[in-house]
Amino acid sequence: MTPSKPKKSTTEQLRGALPLLLELVRPRRGLLVFGMLLMVINRGAGLVTPTSVKFLVDDVIGKRHVQLLTPLVLAVFAATVIQGITSFTLTQLLSKEGQRLIAELRRRVQEHVGRLSVAYYDATKSGMLVTRIMNDVEGVRNLVGTGLVEFVGGMLTALFSFFFLLHISVLLTLSALLFMAVFGLTLNRAFGHIRPIFRERSKITSEVAGRLTESLAGVRVVKGYHAEEQEARVFAGGVQRLLDNVMRSLTAMSLMSLSATLLMGCVWAAIMFLGAREIFSGAMTLGDMMSFTAFLAFLIAPTFQVVGIGTQLTEAMAGLDRTQEVLHEKPEDQEPRRKVLMGPVKGFVDFENVSFAYSAGKPVLHEISFAAGPGTVTALVGPSGSGKSTIISLLAAFHEPFAGTIFVDGIDLTTVRLDSFRTQLGVVLQDTFLFDGSIRENVAFSRPDATEEEVLEACRIAHVHEFAERLPQKYDTIVGERGVRLSGGQRQRISIARAILANPRILILDEATSSLDSESEQAIQAGLAYLMEGRTTFVIAHRLSTIRRADQILVVEDGRICERGTHDSLYALSGRYYDLYTRQHGLDANLFLAPGEGDQESDERKRPIALRGAAAPSAASFLRGGVA
């Protein structure tokens, strides 16, 4: 569990997001300048209408200058057309560019996240990464889209309106500003109260959505334990928390709306009172009064708009700052020392005094040393938590040792460019992961550029064709999320076909057959035998009968290799491997040796009386020369 980071202030978020913002804006600065120019024209045209009110009332109507009516109407019409065209152009240019930017940033963040180390994934919730990729970049359109331009445009409109209002009446303008200042202070405090509510809502929504996703993905476990009501209660509790949060925000928003309505009522009442007195005294004309009220609306509306957009921009900067945090994480293949481009791997693997710890002061491997060559099988056995999977993770370069060295073909693995190494690495796991796509797509995942013939050949070798050809859509059959529409044996065969297509030089089998029934296991033995031929193979084995023919067996316990050797030598040693093997089978292991193995002279004597004279039961040999 990663320690929670202290919350950043708005200023810190702005400072953190600024480098990425400048990087995003720089290639689009020409578009933004053009957008600003259009916005100035748009807002200038928008001021024609309130300006024309004075001339309409005082000159055309008051003084009966009818000849001015047509030019005045044409000017208003032309200004409206200009405003409409510039608004349309702004939306087309900036809104679409904002959406392109979101798509570009999502691709960039996803690509970067995909290159981060496994250690980063271990310490980070996948839901948080999804939020970074999909949600946090959404607000960017307000920074490099209509939001920023609207923000500037609103400020320009408010500024122009303010000078026009001062020109018409200083008294009325200062009176209106006094009320607006009071409202601005109230609004600022209100937003200070509302922002944490919205942040909490985002957190609650993520938690509820995450639990719902887990519940749906684990529906078989839920139903298997008849836990539908329990999950319903958990989800209902999350929904209630979300509802309470929404209710608080609605109450705050309602109070803000009430305050705005009351304040605007006070503003208009004051303007009506003072304006009427100014007209009676001859300081203002009726046209001045009507023009003032129109300009006042143009001052108030953009002010509210600026506040709203300003909040959006602040949230966008916060999201951009969180995105920047992810982009600052160093990809695993960008270590300065990883410069060696590995050619075709022969398959010589050497661990020399390798030690490793996931967290400081808590080592899980202690001075591991062993060697494996091409065409050999190395089996790792031992109790759960002994360090077998960690050794494999180090071999796959998912982690790096803090002491010792791992050599592949004599090259220090920490100096190798990972793309050149992992393309020659194949992994077949016990818990097979398939994507929600077709059988063909899942097999071709290891080599997207493979031809149709190569994909089908890999499927034939792994015996995928035996069930795929019987399906209505054959290789185009959708396997479902994590391959849920297929059996365990079918999923495993697809996994093996995927590894065969990759043609790896180093192969890792993490108990590839232990969860299968006998029929499924026999069906994939030939595929595994083909896959292992000529390759350096590492097998994590819990079922010890499957590694009888391994070239070397490493017994791992408490992060150390306590025994090593072949099955026969380790069994004869009567040590830890002997204990594991006999405990697993419940009887003396020689009772289950295949014909021709072990102490042949004593086979008949050692067998149970009920089985003497019958064919000796055979343990699954190493794929009849491989992995069973």
Kindly describe this structure.
This protein has helices at residues 10-25, 29-46, 48-62, 69-114, 118-123, 126-134, 146-168, 170-217, 219-224, 228-280, 286-328, 388-395, 418-422, 439-443, 452-461, 465-468, 488-502, 518-532, 567-573, 576-585, 603-606; strands at residues 349-357, 363-372, 377-381, 403-408, 411-412, 425-429, 506-510, 536-540, 552-557, 560-565. By secondary structure, the chain is of the alpha/beta class. The protein has a six-stranded mixed beta sheet with strand order 6-7-8-3-9-10, sandwiched between helices. Strands 2-1-4-5 form a four-stranded antiparallel beta sheet, with helices on one face. Helix 1 packs across helix 11 (286-328), helix 8 (170-217) runs antiparallel to helix 10 and helix 17 (488-502) packs parallel to helix 18 (518-532). The longest helix is centred in the middle third of the chain and has 53 residues, at 228-280. The protein is elongated, with a radius of gyration of 37 Å. The model is unreliable at 587-628 (pLDDT under 50).
The helix content, as a percent range, equals: 55-70%
How far the N terminus sits from the C terminus, by CA atoms, comes to 38 Å
Q: Give the CATH class of the domain at 10-169 and 286-334.
A: Mainly Alpha
Rg, please?
37 Å
Shape: elongated
